[in-house]
Amino acid sequence: MRYSGFKVIKEALTGHKGWKPAWRDPEPKAQYDVVVIGGGGHGLATAHYLAKVYGQRNVAVIEKGWIGGGNVGRNTTIIRSNYLLDGNEPFYEFSLKLWEGLEQDLNYNAMVSQRGIINLIHSDAQRDAFTRRGNAMILNGADAELLDAEQVRKEYPYLNFNDARFPIKGGLMQRRGGTVRHDAVAWGYARSADSHGVDIIQNCEVTGFRIEDGKCLGVETSKGFIGAGKVGCAVAGNSGRVMGMADIRLPIESHVLQAFVSEGLKPVLPGVITFGAGHFYVSQSDKGGLVFGGDIDGYNTYAQRGNLPVVEDVCEGGMALMPMIGRARLLRMWGGIMDMSMDGSPIIDRTPVEGLYFNGGWCYGGFKATPASGYCFAHLLARNEPHPTATAYRLDRFRTGRMIDEKGAGNQPNLH
Amino acid sequence: MIIDHPLLGPRDSSEFVYLGDASLIDRPDWQAENAAEAFYDYAYLRDNPAGEHRELWFHESGDRSWLVVTRNTMTHEISKVELARDVARAQGRSK
Ligand SMILES: Cc1cc2nc3c(=O)[nH]c(=O)nc-3n(C[C@H](O)[C@H](O)[C@H](O)COP(=O)(O)OP(=O)(O)OC[C@H]3O[C@@H](n4cnc5c(N)ncnc54)[C@H](O)[C@@H]3O)c2cc1C
Description:
The complex is a heterodimer of chains A (416) and B (95). Chain A is of the alpha/beta class. In chain A, 27% of the residues lie in helices and 27% in strands. Chain A is built from eleven helices and 18 strands. Chain A has helices spanning 5-13, 41-52, 89-100, 102-106, 124-139, 149-155, 182-195, 239-244, 308-321, 370-383, 397-400; strands at 31-37, 59-62, 78-79, 117-121, 145-148, 170-174, 178-179, 199-201, 206-212, 215-221, 224-233, 252-264, 272-275, 280-284, 289-300, 330-341, 347-350, 356-360. In chain A, the strands form three sheets. In chain A, strands 1, 2, 8, 9, 10, 11, 17 and 18 form an eight-stranded mixed beta sheet that branches. In chain A, a hairpin with a 4-residue loop joins strand 13 and strand 14. The radius of gyration of chain A is 21 Å and the shape is globular. In chain B, a hairpin with a 7-residue loop joins strand 4 and strand 5 (66-72). Chain B has a single domain (2-90), classed as 2-Layer Sandwich (Folate-binding fold). In chain B, the strands form two sheets. A four-stranded antiparallel beta sheet of chain B has the order 3-4-5-6. In chain B, strands 1-2 form a two-stranded antiparallel sheet. Chain B is 18% helix and 35% strand. Chain B has 95 residues and is of the alpha+beta class. Classes of the chains: A alpha/beta (416), B alpha+beta (95). At the A-B interface, helix 8, strand 12 and strand 15 of A face strand 3 and helix 1 of B. The complex binds flavin-adenine dinucleotide. Residues 37-43, 62-65, 69-72, 74-78, 205-206, 234-238, 242, 257-259, 293, 336, 362, 364-368 of chain A line the site of flavin-adenine dinucleotide (FAD).
């Protein structure tokens, strides 16, 4: 069923009796060409592009809970392509371009809103670093603008410009960045994949792999064995646990990231802003809530909740940047489990087990990557070779010294 | 989280800095045949378990000792806290 304005009017006039579930709820078949583990944004996007772009329709997505219950439904919805390094920037710019055409591609309103993102500058050194980053972005075909303090003030007059310690000196603006309705991304990809014949199997946990002579033949699940020509693993925060079942140790630690939403307020924040002196970022949802967050808690965890010291730290960041935020009441807070890699960059690659492929290490920035991650993982699964924009995301780059470390923080996941 | 420091008693975890898996105490022998492989494993690969995890915490805003904390990564429950120095010595490292 295609969605359209015409369809909405027709349904309104006929008592809304013609809407159908957006995807089926099938029982798993005995064998698929490709099984994708994980019904988050990345797994569902992979299935969509496998079916639509690469013509692979005998595909299943296997999700232990309900689709969209993981990080894709927990993130702060920011999309951008403001990276510095060659291994990253073409990939994220590819992703941003896919976001720009996503709703037409999926026939689904994902509320893609290119409201702009500003990384604030507080010192001369930071201006130099952001100027360099902006140039790297432009060289890779992305957009970037260096704003001075007055230009930032025009859009955000209430920020704490004259703070003695962290005065705001300007910002690096990417106008094509913004936010997207995160749940709608999962649902839109699911609906499209399903309409191309992909089976989305919920409430089905992968509990092991069947591996013979170094080749993966399928997955053991809570609904029995499911055979597969190829298996792609896209389980984000659970990467260590799932790949551990294939005896593969990863350059990844699982950490919790928290997010916060205030009560609904009148429109006050036109775009996304990030504080450059601490770790704090904020935007306003279309319902009016201020959506904000900061650092990860910093210790290994699989519990989808964090602790109070980080709550305090995030709120201090908010008060330092935007003192009026102190008048808003907090409505909700929650946590999601991040697959923090050793260089802060992701992995999309084959594994030492034939027929088993891995997608993970997205850290706290994998939502913006969803379309490109799905596209590139589908390319890898269909062609057995990396997509041109994802050639640097090798699993063995830590062995060969080809790290992609945007922050230059080294092999310490909680510093990325 | 409250870490029950063996010398100082219960302290808030925000006084500490987290490093990672306690296996980082076992630095490989740089002269061994397989040193390159062993250092790759040591520096980059992690078990990352869901459940009990032995990990290194540094009491930066306190007595600056390193601790080995045994903590459940599913519940955040801490079951054991040792001085890293004692753990390393028991493993035959240093004097
Ligand atoms: C608080 C927070 C804020 C964030 N903010 C941003 C942001 O502003 N911008 C941005 O770009 N990124 C952000 N991120 C990161 C982003 O959300 C993630 O990197 C991304 O969603 C991960 O990919 P995914 O959607 O596929 O993951 P998930 O939605 O977590 O999907 C993985 C799925 O695998 C399933 N699974 C796990 N184990 C098994 C198993 N054994 N069998 C079957 N299924 C299994 C899980 O149930 C889950 O549904 C944020 C994350 C959090 C938590």
